[in-house]
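Why does residue order matter? Because the sequence determines the fold. Keep that principle in mind as you read this record.
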Amino acid sequence: MLCLVPTPIGNLEDISKRSLQVLMDAELIFCEDTRVTKKLLSLLGEKNNLDFSNKEYKSYHSHNEKKVLETLTIETFTKNVVYVSDAGMPCVSDPGATLVDYCIQNNIKYDVLPGANAVLTAYAMSGFTHTTFSFHGFLDHKGKERASKLNAILNDDKLAILYESPHRLAKLLEELNKLVPNRTIFLAKEITKLHQTTYKNSASNLYEEFKSINIRGEWVVVIEPSVITGSAIELKDIQDLDLPPKIKAKLISKLTGQSTKEVYQQILDKI
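Structure:
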């Protein structure tokens, strides 16, 4: 069978006894990075008096997963097979989902162990009382895709959680200060590690505070949701408005995703 094992995101003490036992029993370990996994198991072995030396390791990451999947057979899983990403829960902003899907499609038994996860830890740390949230991983570095995604996040009625690297956090805070200066933001740095730090304040205050901070480490960002007042506009609401055809076409286009030209022609056909 296959077993997905979460690994510590910082503090080695966060590995569970069950995870250690599964790793001890593993014959084949698929890793996001074999070097990282070997180093981790070496540290865990020293700390817990365990021997992880007699294992077969294979690389399995976002750049080679398709190629590796083509080499797999059902016989591969007659061994005790484990998958681990570099840190945290596999499949959450990390590889592993295609391996799980392979097992589902081929009726191969699999299991997922619970464990360290930066998203849920930050959610619990944030103090927000919202019961729903959306997770967005890392935003695109730049361009229209980033602007569009950030705009969707800021207009969502759910708490938003995303990851950010140290060299792009300042840019994100600048964008939040410009777009939603009064929105409450929670930041968590290096969760479970020695220099774990959290901040919670308005976007504008955080932007000013971080101008004088040397930003290091990996960050989780939790963004207060947009407050939506009134009822949402539906297509019929716009269709019933007494507006010039061109303006009405633009509004319907925004709502439905159809081209403005196509909608405009449909309106003219009905006149």
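The longest helix spans residues 34-48.
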